[in-house]
Design brief:
It is a single chain. Helices cover 73% and strands 0% of the residues. It has 158 residues and is mainly alpha-helical. The protein has one domain. Helix 3 runs antiparallel to helix 7. The longest helix is centred in the middle third of the chain and has 22 residues. It is globular.
Length: 158
């Protein structure tokens, strides 16, 4: 049952992995989200606009790059240690998600920068929760929203 849920949530993100790929790299597909959630949490706890804006730059760069920047670290380094195959290139759903996240992070950093601490903690807390959700379950809320807006058949969770 877990494999079917993982496959479905990765399909919502635009990835279609066969059984072998799902077994080999399914867990590693969480790689960028674990880093993003961790960095974001530190940025929110410290109320640091600079950490959050740095993460916003990474998120926005994902819109323009073939893959998430953290996937390059995996593809050119970690996978050589793990003996696993490369992570697939980014998807339009992932680019949409990172674009939305980048704008959200800019607003969060701006709130902290201007002293609107409550707003910053609220925006950052919601974003950290969403990043943690995808990092732990593969459930990506912006990808679901993308599916609802542009591709209804892929937006229906199992």
């Amino acid at each position: 049952m877990e494999k079917n849920h993982t496959r479905k949530y990765l399909q919502i993100q635009g990835f279609n992995l066969d059984d072998d790929a799902l077994a080999e790299i399914g867990p590693w597909m969480r790689w960028p989200y674990v880093f993003c959630a961790s960095i974001l949490t530190v940025g929110v706890v410290l109320a640091s606009p600079w950490i959050i804006w740095s993460l916003a730059a990474i998120a926005i760069s994902t819109v323009f790059l073939p893959s998430h920047p953290f996937n390059y670290v995996y593809n050119y380094g970690v996978r050589r240690l793990t003996g696993t195959c490369r992570l697939p290139p980014g998807t339009v759903q992932g680019k949409f998600s990172c674009g939305v996240g980048g704008v959200w992070l800019i607003a969060t950093g701006a709130a902290f920068f201007t002293g609107a601490m409550t707003v910053g903690y609220m925006l950052g807390g919601v974003m950290a929760a969403m990043a943690t959700l995808v990092a732990t379950t593969h459930i990506c809320i912006p990808s679901i929203v993308y599916g609802l807006l542009f591709d209804r058949k892929q937006s229906q969770p199992a």
